[in-house]
Design brief:
236 residues, single chain, mainly alpha
Length: 236
Amino acid sequence: MSPALVISRRELRTYFNSPVAYIVVTVFTIITGYLFFTQLFMEQQAELRGFFGSMPLLFMFLAPAITMRLLADEKSSGTLELLITMPVRDWEVVLGKFLGAIALFGVAVALMVVYGIVVAFLGPLDKGPALGGYIGLLLMGGAFIAVGLMASSWTRSQIVAFIVAVLLCLGLWLIGKIVPFFPRPLQPLIEFLGIDSHVANTARGVIDTRDVIYYGSLIGGCLLLAQQSLESRKWR
């Protein structure tokens, strides 16, 4: 088994051997359930598009809560130095941490499938858009997880890592809200850089190549920066 997978399994065990996973997943399920059933009973809308579109504001807190300890805690406790003395490369540490966090995130998203079942029970469910929406949630969650892991690599404090990750995720979301304030020639670029338009596409069940490229580039870039942050210790 590759070192990255070993580290990811270690991280997943760490999550579920502590109250963190249960608290995060429980709170997430309660909040998403409230949002869904509020839309269902108060707004009389038995559909998932609006529900998917509201997820960025929740994910920008969920992802940092999952990732804030990944590298910051290793640094503050001194276990990072022990980890890197083993036959494992920096990118394998980063990838393993990412995979462990995304696995926990996937558990939380999997629990949201019940909302699709509720919609299908109340009326015909368009399975294509619903499936696309859930895939979009995983892509967006992966991007926010990568941002949170990058922030965790920059500090020894879990609180600082959480705050920085939330601010970065908030910034990605806000960019899409200020597109009209930029000159018209720059608007397509600014719109692409913001996460808002990509969320809107996947909330409709549309998985566009540009969205996949955006999320893939964001995940890859953040993981690369996290790796570089780990490697920088060699020059101190």
